[in-house]
Write a structure and sequence with these properties.
Oligomer: single chain
Strand content: over 45%
Structural class: mainly beta
CATH class of the largest domain: Mainly Beta
Shape: globular
Number of strands: 48
CATH superfamily of the largest domain: TonB-dependent receptor, beta-barrel domain
Distance between the termini: 32 Å
Largest sheet: 29 strands, antiparallel
Length: 786
C-alpha cells in the first residue's frame, strides 16, 4: 500500500499543473446564485473552450486553463448575462448578477447526455438517452445496461458476472430479498427513471453491503417552475397484451407521479437429463417441460418535495400477479419403467411496499430518516398427477405424492434508517466527509404446505416455517479528499460496520472497510483513476431460513442456516479520454454466495435447491466504453466486457475448481433523421459462464425503436428481441458430480422467443420552464436524495 501512495505522489508532482479560473456568483441581495452556466470563450474566435456550473453556494472552478486571452461568459435564468475579459486564468472574485426584468417567454432547452458515462465509482446509464426506454419497465431498461443479467426464471440480478449485488432507490438500500426487488422494478415504469448508476467501487460513504457492487436507480424529480408535468400511454403485444400509463406533475418544489403497468406474458423451460432417483427406483432418464404464464397488474405512486434545505418523498407500490405454471414430464426408470408427471400450479401473489424518506441539509450537517415497509401474500395450489403407463397412480398416498398441495406464504419486512453526514472544507486542498448510520431490519415470515391425503389436508414433517429475523447494523465512516493540485486528487476513507443478526442463532460481526481513490486529469481530455475498496455480502432472510417450498415429489427449495458472509477486496484502474473509457478490475471473493444450487438430503433421497458458499473466487475484468460518431445523424455506443474467473467449491458430491474466460458486448446505434424522426438499434450478447456449479451458455438479443417528435409530444414504436433469440441454455453435471449424479441440460425461453414484444408509446410534456441544468461533471451526490 505504501508503494501505491508513493506512485500516486510521484505522478502528481511530475504532471504539468495548469491554472484555473474560479469565483463566486451572488445576486444584489448577497444570496448565492446556484447552477449558473459559466463558459470560457477563446478571445481570438469566440469558440467555446471550457465550461462549468456554479454549485449551491454560487462558487465555480474551471481547471486546466493555460495562459492566454479569454472571455468569461456567465448566464443564469432570471439574471442579466455577464462577460469578463481575462488576460489569463485567475480568481475573478465575487460577481454580482443583476435581475433580468424582461418577461421571459417559454424557453425549451434540448440536449442529450451520453448513454453511458464512466465515473470514478462505476458506470452511469442515462435512461432518457435511449429511445427504447419509454414504455418499458425499469427492469427492462436495467437488463439492457452493460454487465447486467436478469435471471427471469429465478428473479435474480447479476452485475459483471456476480449475483451478490445490492439495489438502491434514490441512494437508499432496498433491504428486501432480491426476488422482491425484481418484482418491484418489473412494476415500475422507466418513464419515472432519470438514470441508473452501476457502482463497482463505491466510496466509504456508501454501505459496504454487496460484493458485486451497487445498482442505484435514480428517479426523476421536478426541476421546473410553475405547474408542469408529462403524460404517457403504452400499448403492446408479445405472447400476451401489454399496457401502461404514467402521469408526472410538478409545481415548483413539489412533485408527484403515478404509473400503472399491465403485462400478460409466457415463458418456458425444457430439461433433458439423467439422475439416480432413489424415490423412483434408480437411474432415471427425464424429459421435463415447464410453462410459466404470469398476469401482472401493478401500481406505483410517488409524491415529494425539495426545498433549499429540506425535502422528502413517499413512494407506494402495489402489485397483484396470477402465476400459472404447468410442468409436465416423462421419467424412464431404466431399463423400461415409464412414468408420467403433470403438475398444474396456480399462485396469487399480492405485495405492497411503502418507502418514505425525509432529509434536512445544513451548511455542514445533513440528517436523513428512511422507512420501508413491505408485505407479501402468496397462496398457491398445485394439482399433481404421477402415473405409470397403465394410468395407475404411483407412490404412497402421502404428502410427497398427494394429488393436491396447497401452500401459503406471508412476509412482512420493516426497515428504519437514521443517517447523519458531515461535510467540511478544512482548507483549499482538504475536504472532510464523515457520518454515522443506524438501521433496524425486522423480517417476519410464515409459510407452509398442506397435502391432501385420504381426503383430508395434512401438514407433513418440516413442511412449515415461521420465523422472525432481527438485524441491527451500525456504521460510521470518514473520508478525506486531498486536492493535490487543480488536476489531481487523492481520497482516503474507511467505514466500520457492526451487524447483529438474530434468527435461529445470534450472529455478530464488526469489520473495517477501507476505500481509496486517486484521480488525475491530464491536458487534452485524459483522465486516470485508481481505486481500492473492501466489501461484504451478508446472507438475507430467504438465504438462511429453514423453510421448504414444494417443487416436486423428489425436490424442494429451502434456506441454508450455515451460510457465512462474503468478504471481497477490489482494485480498479480506469482511464477516460473524450468519452472513451477503459478499466481493469481485479477482485478476490472469500466464501462467495451462489444461489439456486443443487444439494441433497443425507440419505440422498431428495434434492434440495438452496444457496451455498463457494470456497473462493478470483476475478479479472476488463471493460471498455467506445462512443463513435459516424456522421451528424448516426452515432454509436459500444460497451465491452472481458473477464477471466477462477473459483473453487465443495458443496457438490466432489469438490471442483475451474478457471474460465467469458465476455459480453452491449451496443446502441442512434439515428437522427429529418422532420423529427429518429431511430435506435440496440442489443447485447453474453458468452458462456458459470453460476456456481451450473454452466450457463451464451445468449443475447437485438432491439429496435423509432420515434417521431410532434411539438411537445413524441410517438415511438419499439420492438424487443427482433430475432426471437432469447433462449438461455444452462446445464448441471459438466463441472463435477452433482447431487443425485444429476446430468441435465436446460433451455429457458423468454416470452420474446415466441414472438418479438412490440410496444407503441405516446409521451407529452406540458407546463413550466427549467430552473437550472446540471452538467454531467457535477458530483453524483449533488444529484441524489441524501
Amino acid at each position: 500500500m505504501k508503494r501505491l501512495f508513493l506512485i500516486c505522489y510521484i505522478i502528481a508532482i511530475c504532471s504539468p499543473a495548469l491554472a484555473q479560473v474560479s469565483g463566486k456568483l451572488q445576486d444584489v441581495q448577497g444570496a448565492p446564485v446556484p447552477f449558473a452556466n459559466v463558459i470560457i470563450l477563446k478571445a481570438a474566435d469566440s469558440s467555446i473552450f471550457k465550461g462549468a456550473v456554479s454549485d449551491e453556494q454560487g462558487g465555480f472552478l474551471i481547471a486546466q486553463v493555460p495562459a492566454g486571452q479569454y472571455v468569461l461568459r456567465i448566464n443564469a435564468i432570471g439574471y442579466e448575462g455577464v462577460n469578463l475579459s481575462l488576460d489569463g486564468p485567475r480568481n475573478v472574485g465575487v460577481q454580482v448578477l443583476q435581475t433580468n426584468r424582461r418577461q421571459l417567454g417559454e424557453v425549451v432547452i434540448r440536449g442529450t447526455k451520453p448513454l453511458y458515462q464512466q465515473q470514478e465509482q462505476g458506470i452511469v446509464v442515462n435512461v432518457e438517452s435511449s429511445i427504447l426506454s419509454k414504455g418499458s419497465a425499469a427492469l427492462e431498461v436495467l437488463e439492457r445496461a452493460p454487465g447486467i443479467i436478469i435471471d427471469h426464471r429465478n428473479n435474480s440480478i447479476s452485475m459483471n458476472g456476480k449475483s451478490s449485488v445490492m439495489v438502491m432507490l434514490n441512494g437508499k438500500l432496498l433491504r428486501m430479498p432480491i426476488t422482491q426487488v425484481v418484482a418491484l422494478l418489473r412494476g415500475m415504469r422507466a418513464d419515472d427513471v432519470e438514470k441508473i448508476e452501476l457502482l463497482t467501487t463505491p466510496g466509504a460513504g456508501y454501505d459496504a453491503e454487496g460484493d458485486g457492487g451497487i445498482i442505484n436507480i435514480v428517479l426523476k424529480k421536478n426541476s421546473n417552475v410553475g405547474l408542469n408535468g408529462s403524460v404517457s400511454a403504452t400499448a403492446g403485444y408479445g405472447w400476451g397484451e401489454k399496457a401502461g400509463t404514467s402521469v408526472q406533475l410538478g409545481y415548483n418544489k413539489w412533485y408527484g407521479s403515478y404509473s400503472y403497468n399491465h403485462n400478460r406474458s409466457n415463458a418456458n423451460w425444457h430439461a433433458i437429463g439423467t439422475a439416480v432417483e432413489p424415490l423412483y427406483g434408480g437411474l432415471t432418464y427425464s424429459d421435463v417441460t415447464g410453462v410459466m404464464q404470469p398476469v401482472e397488474n401493478s401500481h406505483t405512486a410517488r409524491v415529494g418535495f425539495d426545498s433549499k434545505h429540506m425535502g422528502g418523498s413517499l413512494l407506494f407500490g402495489y402489485s397483484q400477479t396470477h402465476l400459472h405454471n404447468i410442468n409436465t414430464g416423462m421419467f424412464n426408470v431404466l431399463p423400461d419403467s415409464i412414468l408420467y408427471n403433470h403438475v398444474d400450479v396456480n399462485e396469487y401473489m399480492k405485495w405492497k411496499n411503502t418507502i418514505a424518506d425525509f432529509y434536512v441539509e445544513g451548511k455542514h450537517l445533513n440528517v436523513s430518516l428512511d422507512y420501508l415497509r413491505y408485505t407479501m401474500d402468496r397462496p398457491s395450489k398445485a394439482v399433481n398427477s404421477f402415473v405409470n403407463l397403465k394410468g395407475e397412480e404411483i407412490g404412497n398416498n402421502d404428502t410427497l405424492f398427494a394429488p393436491i398441495q396447497e401452500g401459503y406464504a406471508h412476509t412482512l419486512i420493516q426497515v428504519g434508517v437514521v443517517k447523519l453526514d458531515y461535510k467540511a472544507q478544512l482548507s483549499d486542498k482538504l475536504k472532510l466527509e464523515a457520518g454515522v448510520k443506524g438501521s433496524y431490519n425486522r423480517t417476519e415470515s410464515a409459510s407452509g404446505i398442506k397435502s391432501l391425503v385420504d381426503g383430508e389436508y395434512v401438514t407433513g414433517k418440516d413442511a412449515t416455517n415461521d420465523g422472525v429475523m432481527r438485524e441491527i447494523i451500525g456504521a460510521g465512516y470518514a473520508s478525506l479528499k486531498w486536492q493535490l493540485d487543480s488536476t489531481t486528487a487523492l481520497t482516503v476513507g474507511s467505514r466500520y460496520e457492526y451487524a447483529d443478526t438474530r434468527l435461529t442463532t445470534v450472529r455478530k460481526m464488526g469489520k473495517l472497510f477501507p476505500a481509496i481513490a486517486f484521480n488525475k486529469a491530464f491536458p487534452g481530455g485524459h483522465e486516470l483513476f485508481i481505486t481500492y475498496n473492501k466489501r461484504i455480502t451478508r446472507p438475507v432472510y430467504t438465504d438462511l431460513a429453514s423453510y421448504k417450498s414444494y417443487t416436486g415429489p423428489n425436490s424442494y427449495e429451502s434456506g441454508n442456516p450455515s451460510l457465512i458472509p462474503t468478504i471481497t477486496n477490489i482494485f480498479k484502474i480506469g482511464y477516460n479520454y473524450k468519452g472513451y473509457s477503459f478499466s481493469i478490475l481485479a477482485s478476490r471473493d472469500d466464501h462467495p454466495i451462489v444461489r439456486w444450487q443443487m444439494t441433497e438430503t443425507p440419505d440422498s433421497a431428495v434434492l434440495i435447491v438452496s444457496s451455498q458458499n463457494m470456497l473462493w473466487q478470483n476475478n479479472l475484468v476488463f471493460q471498455a466504453g467506445i462512443p463513435v460518431k459516424v456522421t451528424d445523424w448516426w452515432s454509436m455506443n459500444y460497451s465491452l466486457l472481458a473477464a477471466y474467473r477462477q473459483f473453487k467449491l465443495d458443496y457438490t458430491r466432489k469438490p471442483a475448481q475451474k478457471g474460465y474466460f467469458t465476455w459480453s458486448v452491449n451496443f446502441s446505434e442512434q439515428f437522427k433523421f429529418q422532420k423529427g424522426w429518429s431511430g435506435e438499434l440496440s442489443g447485447f450478447y453474453w458468452g458462456p459462464s458459470y453460476d456456481g456449479s451450473k454452466k450457463v451458455g451464451s445468449f443475447g438479443e437485438v432491439n429496435v425503436g423509432v420515434k417521431k417528435e410532434m411539438g411537445k409530444g413524441t410517438l415511438q414504436f419499439a420492438v424487443e428481441d427482433v430475432f426471437s433469440s432469447m433462449h438461455i441454455p444452462f446445464s448441471f453435471g459438466q463441472l463435477t458430480e452433482e447431487a443425485h449424479d444429476l446430468k441435465s441440460k436446460v433451455v429457458y425461453s423468454a416470452e420474446s422467443s415466441y414472438f418479438p414484444v412490440m410496444k407503441l408509446t405516446y409521451f407529452r410534456a406540458f407546463g413550466g420552464t427549467k430552473q437550472s441544468h446540471k452538467e454531467g461533471g457535477a458530483k453524483e451526490e449533488q444529484e441524489r436524495i441524501n
